[in-house]
Design goal:
Elements (H helix, E strand, L loop, with lengths): L1 H24 L4 E4 L1 E3 L8 E8 L5 E6 L7 E3 H10 L3 H4 L2 E4 L6 E4 L3 E3 L2 E2 L4 E5 L10 H4 L4 E7 L8 E5 L4 E5 L4 H6 L2 E3 L1 E3 L2 E8 L2 E7 L8 E4 H4 L5 E12 L2 E10 L3 E3 L2 E2 L5 E4 L5 H9 L3 E3 L8 E5 L4 E5 L1
Parallel strand pairs: 4-11, 5-10, 17-24, 18-23
Antiparallel strand pairs: 1-13, 2-3, 3-4, 3-8, 5-11, 6-7, 7-10, 8-9, 12-13, 12-25, 14-26, 15-16, 16-17, 16-21, 18-24, 19-20, 20-23, 21-22, 25-26
């Protein structure tokens, strides 16, 4: 009887996962692949999207980062290519200055990412950001990978953003059907200065956390000043030499005795790390936005998340 019950439970979980996947497959989603980059200690540190620009024989990489309010080119790196391919200056011309210095807005041609394209035809450029490698690398290393920018959340504010962590792909859709939402649990999310704020239930209390795909080091992160508002953390791990604004810190973390849930999904084994933040840099940002910290990618490993900006709905598909 116990074996039969277990088989029924497992088959139910499998059918649920299949039905969720099938519902998403019926939506009009355009997909682009991403690759993880990192080191032996943390192989899933950064999400990278490789793109092609015109006929140039390079893999132009962008870090996909929901913690960035803007999509922008790294001006120092990009100038190496415009120096060599001067015609790029007319294809990526400055439209106007942007109110947030030092960014400038530029028009861009279609940028291909796999079988898809980056949304929109304008992006920003930060002239002071990027790697200052020797100019001759552009001619010497054709076909190579070059990190040239960040894909931020501004590209998706008028549509649906889908991140499939199991199949390493990012999807976009103009909208999702009512049928999709009838079959899945969704929660409301907020946007603060182009940053996503998710409701996270810890125990019986609801908190707000930024969702930051660029913070893969941390399942959840808070600061010493804000940790007092959360259930006690039993420290079982420490991340050493974590660099923040040019300074290194050891960041302890562990579990809380309470359950942690997002959109009805129990994030089992999720750790909360407590940054000492002695200067208060993180704490000030979190307090201004009314959040307790941030949640990274690790809790959604092997899952799919749906961030629907047309409805302000967040869904986790298992």
């Amino acid at each position: 009887m116990n074996r039969l019950l277990l088989m029924l439970l497992l088959s139910g979980i499998t059918l649920q996962a299949l039905s969720q996947s099938a519902l998403l497959d019926k939506e009009r989603v355009k997909w682009m692949p991403f690759q993880w980059e990192g080191d032996d200690a943390l192989p899933k540190s950064s999400m990278m999207v490789k793109t092609k620009i015109d006929t140039l024989d390079y893999n132009f990489k962008w870090q996909f980062d929901t913690g960035s309010p803007y999509t922008f080119l790294y001006g120092i790196t990009w100038q190496k290519f415009t120096n060599y391919y001067t015609w790029l200056n007319s294809r990526f011309s400055i439209v106007d200055s942007f109110s947030q210095a030092p960014y400038k807005k530029i028009k861009s041609p279609s940028i291909a990412a796999g079988d898809s394209k980056l949304p929109g035809r304008t992006i920003l450029i930060n002239p002071d950001y990027g790697d200052d490698f020797p100019q001759e690398y552009v001619s010497q290393y054709k076909g190579a990978n070059f990190l040239i920018g960040t894909i931020g959340i501004d590209k998706f504010r008028d549509r649906v953003l889908i991140i499939d962590f199991k199949n390493n792909r990012i999807g976009t859709a103009a909208l999702l059907s009512d049928t999709f939402y009838q079959k899945n649990t969704a929660v409301d999310f907020m946007v603060y200065q182009n940053r996503i704020i998710l409701p996270v239930k810890i125990g019986k209390k609801n908190y707000r956390f930024f969702y930051d795909s660029g913070a893969s080091l941390f399942p959840l992160k808070t600061t010493a000043a804000l940790a007092t508002q959360l259930p006690p953390v039993t420290v079982t791990d420490t991340l050493h030499n974590i660099t923040t604004w040019g300074k290194s810190y050891d960041v302890p973390g562990g579990r809380v005795s309470s359950s942690i849930e997002v959109a009805g999904v129990n994030l089992r084994q999720a750790l909360i790390y407590i940054h000492p933040d002695p200067e208060g840099y993180h704490t000030d940002i979190f307090r201004e936005a009314g959040v307790q910290g941030l949640i990274g990618n690790q809790p959604f490993d092997q899952k799919t998340i749906v961030i629907d900006f047309t409805r302000n709905k967040f869904t986790v598909l298992q």
